[in-house]
Amino acid sequence: MPVRVAGKAIRDLEYLHSKVNLSELFDGEPPAMHSHIERTLEASETFLSDNDTVMFASATMKRILIIYQNSTAELPKQYWNPIILHIRRIWDYSADRVCHDAVDTFSTLLEIHLRQCEECLDRPAGDSHANCDWINEITQWLLEPTSLCRSRFRCISHLVGQCPTLRLNLGRDFFARTYPLISNPSFSSVIFQLIVDNIFDRDELWEMHCQELLSNTDAKLIKSRLIPLLQKYHSGNKKDQKPLESDTAVKFLNHLLIQLNSNNPPSDLQSQLEIVHALVCTTWPRKQGKDNDQPANLVDFSNWSQCITDRTMSAAIVHVETDVRLAAFRLVVENPRKTIAFNEQDIEYIKTFLASNMPIQSPSNRQQLLAAYKFMCQRLGASAESYLKMPQPQDRDSDSFSPDSSSLENSNTLKYKLGKDLWIHPIPESYIQLAKWMAKLAFESISSKANYYRRIMGLGQIDVLFNRENFITDGKQLFADRLNLDSTLGSDRHKLVMDCLDDSYDLVQNTALGLLKKLDFGNIKMNEENYLNDALELMTSTRSRNSTSAVFRMQYYLARQPERYTACLRRFLQDLNERANGAEKELMLITSLPVHPILNMIELLLKNATWQNSEEAKLAFYKEDILKELLPICNRIVAIVSPVVHNMSPEGYIPDEMLNEMYGTTTDRLAELSQHLLVCCWRAHKHVSGIFSWIIEVLAPKKIVSKEEIEAIGTFYWTQLTECKHRGAFESATEGFTQLCQFLWTTDIEDLPKPETWLDEILAATRGEQDLTNLCSTRRSAGLPHLVHSIVSTEPRSNENAALFKATSSLLSMDGKTVMYRVHSMNVMKVLIQSSQLHERIVYCYEQCLKVAIDACRADWSERNAASQLFAALRTKIFGVMRSAQRSLQVDGKNRKSNYEFFSKFPTLYRFLYEQIENHENHSEFSLLPPLVVLTHLYTPPSSTDLYPLGPFIPPLLRIALREKHESLRAHAVAAILAISDVYAKADLSQWVQEFKFDNASQNQLHSFLLIVEGLGNYGEYFNRMLQVVKHVLESLVFRGWCDFTINQLLTIANSFGLNFDVDDVDLTKAVLSKRPIAVRLLRDRDAFKSEMCHHLRSYDTRRELYRTIYKQGWDACIMLFRAHVINIAIMDLASLQTVQCDAKRIMKILTCTTDEFMSQQNMQKAVETIEKHLDTPDHSWTLPSTMAYATKIRYGGCLYPDNELISWIRESYELDDPETKQIALDLGGMFVSRIPSKLSYTESDKEIISAVMLYLQDESDFMRQRTAYHLGHLIRDTGYRALNPEICRVLVTKYCLNDGNEKLERFSIPENRHKTMEERDDLFDACAVNQYEESQLFGDIQLYETSLGFSGYNQEMYDIEY
């Protein structure tokens, strides 16, 4: 095959990209520039598959036109159209820079043309039909919807920008085709530019734009794209516009708002809030007022109240969806005009939102809330400054204040008094009360009875609220001084934050520790002895949570008393030594007096030192206490725990001599003890590795660690990475060994071990030249790959990758290696390939690595397994990570490369892959699959050159597809054929398919033939041909002699093509797989249920395929005429004892999805009786919770009232982990709740079903909580809201439905037996949280919620100022 380098033909034109001599370029006949243009155009066409050539040619053509633009020379007309063709070739290129160059080239060419063309120069300014023929041709070409690429729209934008009269061509038809593309990130920016330009030019299309924007466009795009562009046009074009046109953007947005608010309630509340938020947060320049008192602006966007109604905001702030509530809160508090004061209604909304949205689950939403919370604090400080500077009024009843400044000033709900020294205006005073209320809410939210989401939100708000800088804007700090929130801190709040140090979540603990160090809680007295004893008591537990809590407690203690740092460390070293001595005498003591909590404490205290001693004192401490005492103890602990950690048993290990002493102990107890021992040993091992890593990182550079100590640490890591089988152990050792290698590569200390020596030793071991008896022999080589990776990834640049080259050349050389060493080599190479640190440095060996992986697929299972892992890593690195799950053999376009792009990087693979495919009969079927997979990732571009043609691969691939006995290989071969075929090859394939002879074809050949037909049918230009082929096969009945597998493939294709076929043509007695497409056909065949055709449904397998199809696709898969008949036979099958559980579940699901129009009362009664009869059977087969859920739903679907059994089942379903069962239970309970009207008092039976459904308001799934709120919303009194925030719904339904209006709700807290205390839990592992959202008490402000929902007007006390 020809192989040559392309793209170097015009490299001599590189001088054009620097300063040039114009006379040299344009003098002569013909000028040199003409030759440069022709050569550049030829190169861009000839070498279109070569990235380097195309990028250079596009940049060169752009540069040539810029030279023409800056000179007086004219560009010959003969080059205009060729340059346009050049632009069309490259404007959708894979490299973005080429696309940008194409657009810039078009813009420059257009400007040159307008400067040269006499017709364009003589054109009347306002005549849109007087353009020259060339411009009209270009306009027609650009506006035709033949190409969907971003560059086309950018060229249109440049065209209408330089030829404004052409804007009339952008009408309704153009935008009707364009708006559907606006959601595509590639098009949205440039399309919005065209839209905004059209808005300023043609106000008659505003109605169309508003409709399209509100119906087909994401509100976030309007916020991020449209409004900033409108503001840009509004500001930038103001001087060039007429006076009446300068408000075009404001007028259009006002028009958009009118349409937005026309729907009440709005169809998309979140979109409305996002758009209004963008309007409020955008700075609009005000037009200067005229002498005739004209208003400064037609529309005021300074506050949300000018854009939407209070009713809309009230609905949004308590909306059932979190995103809507968050958008409403941001709209209330975020405003670039920070000096605008919050009014009474704003504070009402702020309190309601914060009180009911503390437990937000989504991390992104939580961050948005905290950002808005911080902005609110800044706005409180900024807007209060002007009021704090006001002079004290002489009369408290004076009307000297403007009534328009804020509703708070003249409200009867506010009281203020004159102080002796300082008067405070009501607005900043209300802010102070709001801040104190928010502080109270935040501290209440970090209660131990709150869930994780509420606690972390409370801590985040405390961090923002008590940061004084957040209330200071532009250096103005009057409000921050007056607020003085630190005065509210005390021992009670200190204890709440302290309790968070014992939290089970590391993020909560770290945040709480930071607050304890930062906040001034006053003179808090700590009982030092009790505090330390509590920490030491926690360290006697084997639970990791307890040891972590002890560490955080000690970190806080030492932050308060840093002088105690060394004393505490010495105390822990003493305790560690005592426990190590005990474990040496009796290993099992390590489970009752574990060493890992103390090691964890020492490790974290070393890494987070709080002492402030001199450098000499620190070095002395490190030498005497750490190196002389801690290191020997760690080495002893390693010797104690290594036999357990290195043991192969994943279930734990007890030495044989200890087992003899435990004679008579039960098996369960032995299993528990072995796991307990393994956990304690492994955790100790992990912390020792962390301590060693710290020593290398911190102490070794100080040159106080001896050579022997460094060698001992290196030996420890070497042992773990070469011999240990415990995944956690060798992975924790990897971090320390990487630190050690990094130190050894760069240190100037002599006589230390060198990483090169270790690399040579381990490479010799992988070649079998050096005997490492204990070298790990696991399937993935355990820590061995990490050892090599640590050495080569830390290699300094000055070494020029010498270690990496040595490692890869040795590992990829398989000559003379045994199976075990070949497996080790490939496992190591896989880790090196996957490494992000090596990335570009290791690309050079991809080619050889692919060959090794493909060749190794011919070997036995162990080697083949390692090779497949290596190949998978290479595929990901070469072709990229899959954007979505690949459910077919058709590869996503973003994960494919052109033939030239791939083989120019790996040229020897061209011959290698071809030989693998050509000589497939001589190779293992396992080694054939990787080359086929590689080929499915390649394609032939339309303008491909003769370099590395893929056409020669098609004949051998076709032979594989027709002759190979393995179905998977045939399918991959067909996928490869379709992937690499260009237009001509596909045409040949289509012709071959149409001439295919079925007479002597084997079943495998027929299968491949059908796969090719199906694949070609996916291309629009070949669909009709393939349709006729399949239709011919069905009509000729040639398939009657085919096997079931092939018939199934044929009928599946027929269904996907929408072809009808006669099911009688298929022998159902031999059909198995083909019954599935037959079932699909029956469900949409009007003649399927005639009496003479009912025999098709006598087969139970065919009926179960009917049920499966409806179960997957819904009732839309069945025509309405036969739904009732399907229901009849489904009920009969449900009553049969032969129906297995999975089929029964499908039947019951499709029955529950049936409307009353097709399900008669008799049939429903039959189904209920059948289910009850089955459930009464002692040993019935329905054991899955979801199956029982569907049965229960049908059983109680027609009941008027729930019984105790149903209510108990609803409660039990809440405890399950099956989302399907929980949703069915919720919907069934919600059906009964919906029948309960809102009333003053509820019966006990009502309360039972309501309380059962209310459990789901605490479900971990936000979807389930919202669904529950929809079921319960109508029970809230005196309000028309159907669905509320689940937090509000839970509190108010509890009060009005379960507690008869009484606000004392303590008895409705979750029973303590549902939340086991720490002491009751398993002492070995931390219990998995079944439901992280569930809380053991009710949180919320009932009066605040009632006020927000309009129960009794505003709560006057909320704004009273107390003195």
From TrEMBL:
GO terms for biological process: tRNA processing. It comes from the Eukaryota. Keywords: tRNA processing. Residues 390-410 are annotated as: Disordered. Residues 302-509 form the tRNA (32-2'-O)-methyltransferase regulator THADA-like TPR repeats region domain. InterPro entries: ARM-type_fold (IPR016024), THADA-like_TPR (IPR056843), THADA-like_TPR_C (IPR056842), THADA/TRM732_DUF2428 (IPR019442), tRNA_methyltransferase_THADA (IPR051954). Signal peptide: none annotated. Residues 626-861 form the DUF2428 domain. Residues 864-1014 form the tRNA (32-2'-O)-methyltransferase regulator THADA-like C-terminal TPR repeats region domain. Belongs to the THADA family. This is tRNA (32-2'-O)-methyltransferase regulator THADA. It comes from Caenorhabditis briggsae.
